[in-house]
Each structure stands twice: as C-alpha cells, then as structure tokens.
Amino acid sequence: xxxxxxxxxxxxxxxxxxxGVGYAILHREDDLAAGRDISDVDLVVDRPARExxxxxxxxxxxxxxxxxxxxxxxxxxxxxxxxxPERGDGAQVDLAFDPHGRGRYGFLPVPLIDGxxxxxxxxxxxxxxxxxxxxxxxxxxxxxxxxxxxGAAVDDERAPALDRRVDEIFSRFGAVEARAALRGTEPGxxxxxxxxxxxxxxxxxxxxxRLVRPTGTIIxxxxxxDELAPIxxxxxxxxxxxxxxxxxxLPARGGASAWSGSVVLLAGRPRPxxxxxxxxxxxxxxxxxxxxxxxxxxxxxxxxxxxRH
Length: 309
What we know:
The chain is an alpha/beta fold. The protein contains twelve helices and eleven strands. Strand 4 and strand 5 (90-96) form a beta hairpin. It is elongated and about 65 Å long. 38% of the residues are buried.
C-alpha cells in the first residue's frame, strides 16, 4: 500500500486545510508540497476522522478523487485510501485523533496542533515536536539505529527544551518511551511489562473491531479472472492487498482475508448461499465501465464504514 500519486494526497490535505479543522502534518510536509514520492501522509487532527473528511468527499469526488477504503487503526487512527482520476493513481492518508494518548505512540493532538508551524504549503508540527515524534516512532518500530542517529543530532543546548516538551506532547506512558529514546536509556522492567500488555490490548481492540466491522470487501463481478486482473493491479498500487478469485474457489480462497482488509474481486457469479454476503456489480464488457463499477462499490462501502466508525 502506498501513495502512487502525491497530487491526490495533496488535494485531500488542501480540503482539510481550507476547512478550518485543526491539523498538522507529522512529517515530510516538504516532500508532499514538492510532489515527491511518499508512502503515506500522516496528520494529527483535533476531531474524529469522520468529521474531518466526510464533508469533503462529494467535492473530492467531483474532481475524480474517491475514498475506496477506510481502516480504523490503533485506538484512534483512521487510515484512508483514495483513488484518483487516472487508474492506478491514489493516496493513503492517516488521520490521528487520540485525545488521551492511548495509541501506540502516545502523543497528544492538542499540544502538537497548538505548536504547529506553517510549512512549505500546509501546517506541520514544530521542529522540536518532529524530533520527539520521530524518536518515539522509530523506537516503537524497533529501529534503534535511527533512534541513535536522531538522538546524536540533538546537541546539549537543545536537549533540555526537548526533555521538557516530552511531558507536554505525550501521555504519561508515551513520555516514558519518548524520554528513554531521547536520553538513550531503557525504561524499567515494570514499564516494559506494561508496554507488552498495552501492545496486546491495542492489537486485541483492532482485531475485535475488524471482526465486528470488516475492513475488506468481496465484490462479485460478471467477468473472467483475466479480465479482472488489470483492475486488481491498478487498485493494488494503492491498497494493501487486492486479489482475484474465481467464484468457484470462494470461500476456500480469499474469504477470510476480506475480514482483515483485503479486497477480493470475485470472477463470476457467487454460489447462491454466498450471494447475500458479497457485493455484486452489473455486467459490462467495457473495461472502463467495469473499473467504475468496482470503484463505485468500494466507495459506497468505504463511506458507510467511515460513517459507522
């Protein structure tokens, strides 16, 4: 999953920027403004993703940009996937709204947004906050080489201010991890045990949410596997996992994967007992119409999923 067209991501951020919503791009604002390749766009926002994005979906659609998948992630982050006017173009936009810092990184939205600065085109978090965010993120991902490199770039004059800022932008739990990354130390055994418990709880919450509201989709299309392969390839430039499965092979192949975020394109008519469980789009021999039908169904489901989250 990736942003294959930075201009699509830029259009989404432009809408958020004009709306008056409190937000700040967490990192690589300059790369996005310059149109350089990025994997995704991470924003911290001052309200839930539904309130940030839903008012702009119709306007984006008029420009050929459509929301095709919504993943609730962590306690409070929503991952949104958009496709653009051209097939294969799209973007991943992550919106973090975590008022209590319960998520994996433990940062708090209000102080980050209060301390934001204007970047090349949009609001971004301040330089000190960026340093602390990257330290916390790299530590959480286990990239200790990057943690050491970022920490080595912090000079003695700047370190006290960063140390004070830790308590302002992180929850108490996140601050312990961020300060350890800043100082090059390790938290105590009790904290490490609590960290493992927290990760387990976050994972359980995420999996439970996907059981209740699956993030993937199964779409039955009256077409052959070969005819659906180009659609899967174009969607796969943006979405995490897109696969084509013959109708006779479901649910043995691809059924369970739709619960965890995959898009399964079902070639042919599903078995009668499965028809109520999958979306079906109309038959057409025109490749562009077939693409529009599949994307339209993904959009309908993504909007519904966003409203319910």
